[in-house]
Specification:
Chain lengths: 309, 279, 330
């Protein structure tokens, strides 16, 4: 099918000078594709650099721990208990003689793994339902929002505990529970973003161009809402890290004795009073570090994309 | 020969940006004559709004002056300290911005805001300030001024909010009134009413007025003198009659043609004009 | 040129749209569109002129069914589309397209120019991939852009260029009718003329019918064959460009024309004044919509809105008072 259209002999208009001017004055305010924009953001934001750097360290530790740790993190009754940090045991040993450093490192798999998995699931589910609620509105929206309110009316930790106790322990269950708890945040954000962008004329134009509703919602509107969602996800991950550790601290969901930061803090807390501070201290630092890394990444990202006004 | 109330002399400056300084003004020079209405005309990015902000020293912090002065009644505004600037703004120079409803504080009534501005610069009691505020609203032809003074900005229509802003700018009887795109975004009939109001007010008080706009129709209606800005440079200065009937500069001619929406036959002259400017 | 017996490219009959706002206790109505009739023939431009609250944008969206009208008929080339279900609307969009006002928000910020123009080819015309490239490039050059612009994102283009992309996108499906909602209002003065020139050329080459919505009388005067003046949901005056601009009849048209600033020295004219400002479109009282502000208002004006009647040539007016005066003079 060919179109017979004559060529216009009109000269190409030059870009108005104000475009260059405004481009020079305003920092990048959108998540543009490509390495260049990522590099620019890193250059501009100290927070992001710190965040990514720290996360990188944790990731390296996690990967390495899959192959090697200085001592076996689960070997009971082997080492001398309650040794203070030294050249041999960098973080000392705990009540059962296990090397604290190895356990902290091994726990990275558990804590960081659960956090990343739970955040990813919450992100996908929350964004999907939020987009549907925001775009289609009406009865679907009302139904989704009512369900959300029900979910959010419980204190988070209490809800998590109850569900885990109900469905049983185990890492997959913990991931599921934490994910479900995290969904409301993403849902509300995605819904708000889609609602506001729905008015934009390109959504109307998309309809004229032949797009159906689902296409407009997911192919057109959602990609324009990713910046705030990514920023939220990062900061949410910080919070989730603490939640996961808290669950471990309470003793919910994780096998007793497994290497997990929260559980380690809990098991070491009696010893602190006696002066053996290292058993609870180092897991605590690990939690702080990971949460802080996620937070700074999200914060820096918000700054760099101009989301914070 | 009327003495200039405000004169801009070889003003040049740039914005600081992550990619280095971006020059926005080059040797801008013009004068605002006492008692006359001067229009500063330009498109987006010409630097006209920036110039008006510089007159009051409310420009963005990232702006650096590289040369030139702005002298208001003989004194360079760049050399004034905070106290002098505060005394100047509102009392000596009043400014009206484009979007009135955004410029007004939504949580205070119009009357309160007007009275506050009044008491900032004049020693009057609250009751007196209130009375002056209501009087100012009636001077800008807002019907039922006493009732309107108790209302909030969101209860005002676009045109009425703009009148309220003009009232606020004039309440301390300044010597110079700056209007930055005062009618852009208003309906045609509302715009005409506001322009008539501005004309009446400036005639009756002999106010010196500086009108910044991109709309040449507005300029033709209201202004006696015109300054044409493009890309941070002054392209032409002259009386209204002269600029419209006998423009000298190529950009001015092109702008006039464009505003009259001249079509195909004038295309060749436009192409010429483009080539001249890019050189 | 109109041929006898030819169907208008677009005919709108008795279009109505009312919005309800407020909750159960405080429900109020906005009659955005009130019994509007329009017709446009191929190769013609009808300018729909009005200020804020006139309902012109709502009318445009009702015609293309982005908003569902309460009642009214729309015919494209004689074929009624009022009963077309929303699922089948895409077939309508092959004949009727829209160009939007704001070049900043009418293009998806994350799609390149190529993707934006390809989309209608893909979804409407199902153009095979190998032909798409050529078609897109021809469309681009038709609107005065170059191949270099293909892979740019909207924020890398100027306002005028973005609007050209919007026009190219609308032209991709080779529609018969183009509805333009204030396409030049957000553009700089110097660019406005270029876009208008482009639209004029396109119309001459392809015989498109334009419904050109604007508040700018100068723009309407330049491009329009016929003009309709809209106020608070009703059409108050209608006729050829010469008839309406040369011999305005309705008091509102006279006020509008006298208010528009002209960029010429010494062109200042007597203002035809209406009292007050445009009232809120909420709960408009019965009668002529201008009755609250008109200098010629009499009691009859407030009872029922006067109908739009032909009084000379192809010139219609909804003010019985001024048409009676004018007819008495002739």
């Amino acid at each position: 099918m060919t179109l017979e259209i004559e060529l216009a002999n009109e000269p190409a208009p030059q870009a108005a000078p104000y475009v260059e001017l405004t481009a020079a004055l305003t920092p990048p305010h959108r998540w543009k594709d490509g390495l260049h924009s990522a590099r620019t953001m890193l250059r501009q934001s100290f927070s992001m650099r710190v965040g990514i750097g720290l996360l990188g360290c944790y990731l390296v530790v996690l990967v390495v721990s899959l192959f090697w740790t200085p001592f076996d993190p689960n070997a009971t009754g082997v080492g001398i208990p309650l040794l203070s940090p030294s050249g041999a045991n960098w973080f000392g040993t705990d009540r059962l003689g296990m090397d604290v450093f190895s356990r902290v490192v091994a726990a990275t798999r558990v804590d960081m793994g659960i956090t990343v998995a739970a955040v990813s699931i919450a992100f996908v589910l929350g964004t999907f339902f939020g987009t549907v609620a925001g775009y289609f509105g009406g009865a679907i929206d009302i139904a989704i929002m009512r369900f959300l309110e029900m979910l959010q009316s419980f204190p988070v930790l209490l809800l998590a505990m109850l569900i885990v106790i109900a469905i049983g322990p185990g890492i997959p269950n913990v991931i599921l529970v934490v994910a479900v708890i995290g969904v409301p945040g993403y849902l509300r954000l995605a819904r708000a973003e889609v609602l506001s962008k729905k008015q934009w004329q390109f959504a109307e134009a998309a309809r004229m161009v032949g797009s159906g509703s689902w296409r407009i919602a997911f192919r057109h509107l959602l990609p324009n809402c990713t910046s705030p969602l990514v920023a939220f996800a990062s900061i949410n991950a910080a919070w989730v890290t603490v939640i996961v550790a808290s669950l471990g601290y309470i003793g919910v969901g994780i096998q007793p004795g497994a290497a997990e930061w929260g559980a380690m803090i809990s098991s070491g807390q009696d010893e602190v009073v006696l002066g053996y501070w290292w058993i609870s201290f180092f897991p605590g630092i690990a939690i702080l570090g990971l949460a802080g890394a996620f937070y700074m990444l999200g914060d820096g990202f918000s700054d760099a994309t101009g989301l914070k006004r | 020969m009327t003495e200039a109330m405000l004169s801009v002399d070889a003003l040049s400056g740039a914005f600081r940006s992550p990619n280095g300084p971006v020059e926005v003004l080059h040797e801008v020079s013009f004068e605002l004559n006492r008692g006359s209405v001067t229009g500063i005309v330009g498109e987006t990015g010409s630097g006209k709004s920036l110039t008006s902000h510089l007159m009051l020293q409310i420009q963005p912090k990232s702006f650096m002056r590289t040369n030139g002065t702005i002298c208001f009644e003989g004194r360079d505004v760049f050399t004034m300290n905070d106290a002098e600037l505060r005394a100047m703004r509102g009392a000596q120079i009043g400014i009206v911005f484009q979007d009135a409803r955004a410029a007004l504080n939504p949580v205070f009534s119009i009357g309160t805001q007007l009275a506050d501005v009044c008491r900032l610069h004049r020693k009057v009691s609250r009751a007196e300030a209130r009375a002056i505020a209501i009087d100012a609203l009636s001077r800008v032809e807002i019907p039922e001024p006493a009732r309107r003074a108790r209302q909030y900005p969101h209860q005002f229509s676009g045109g009425m909010a703009q009148r309220a802003m003009i009232a606020m700018a004039l309440i301390c009887e300044p010597k110079l009134l700056i209007l930055d795109e005062p009618t852009t975004g208003l309906d045609v009939t509302t715009q005409a009413a506001i322009l008539d109001l501005i004309r009446a007010l400036t005639k009756e008080s002999g106010l010196t007025t500086c009108l910044i706009t991109h709309d040449l129709g507005v300029v033709a209606e209201l202004c006696e003198d015109i300054v044409v800005l493009h890309d941070g440079r002054v392209r032409e200065v002259g009386s209204c009659e002269q600029i419209f009937t006998n423009p000298v500069d190529s950009y001015t001619r092109r702008l006039l043609d464009a505003s009259k929406l001249v079509l195909r036959d004038e295309h060749s002259t436009m192409a010429e004009a483009k080539v001249e400017i890019s050189v | 040129m109109r041929q006898p017996g030819e169907y208008p490219a677009l005919r709108v009959s008795a279009m109505n749209k009312t919005f309800s706002i407020g909750g159960a206790f405080a429900e109020r109505k906005i009659r955005a569109v009130n019994e509007v009739d329009l017709e446009i023939y191929a190769g013609e431009t009808l300018a729909l002129v009005g200020e804020s609250g006139s309902g012109k944008s709502t009318l445009a969206r009702c015609i293309v069914r982005l908003i569902e009208p309460d009642s009214g008929e729309v015919e494209l080339d004689g074929k009624s589309i009022a009963l077309v279900k929303s699922r089948e609307l895409p077939t309508v969009y092959r004949d009727m397209q829209m160009v939007f006002q704001d070049p900043n928000s009418s293009l998806n910020p994350r799609m390149t120019v190529r993707q934006i123009i390809e989309e209608p080819l893909r979804l409407h015309l199902h153009t095979p991939k190998r032909d798409r490239r050529d078609v897109v490039r021809r469309l681009l050059s038709r609107v005065g852009l170059q191949d270099a612009h293909l892979d740019r994102l909207p924020h890398q283009l100027s306002g005028g260029q973005r609007q050209r992309v919007g026009i190219a996108r609308a032209l991709a499906v080779q529609p018969k009718v183009l509805i333009l909602d204030e396409p030049t209002s957000s553009l700089d003065v110097s660019v406005r003329g270029q876009i208008l020139q482009l639209l004029a050329d396109l119309q001459e080459d392809t015989g498109l019918a334009y419904l050109f919505i604007t508040h700018d009388l100068q723009v309407a005067r330049r491009l329009a064959d016929r003009v309709a003046v809209m106020y608070l949901g009703r059409i108050l005056e209608q006729g050829t460009s010469d008839e309406v601009f040369g011999f305005p009849s309705h008091p509102y048209t006279k006020a509008l024309l006298s208010a528009a600033p002209i960029p010429e020295w010494g062109a200042r004219k007597e203002r035809y004044l209406l009292s007050g400002e445009i009232p809120s479109p909420i709960d408009v009282p019965d009668g002529c919509p201008l009755s609250s502000r008109c200098p010629l208002v009499i009691d009859e004006c407030r009872l029922a809105p006067p109908p739009l009647l032909r009084f000379e040539g192809t010139h219609d007016s909804a003010c019985p008072i001024t048409t009676a005066n004018q007819m008495a003079l002739t």
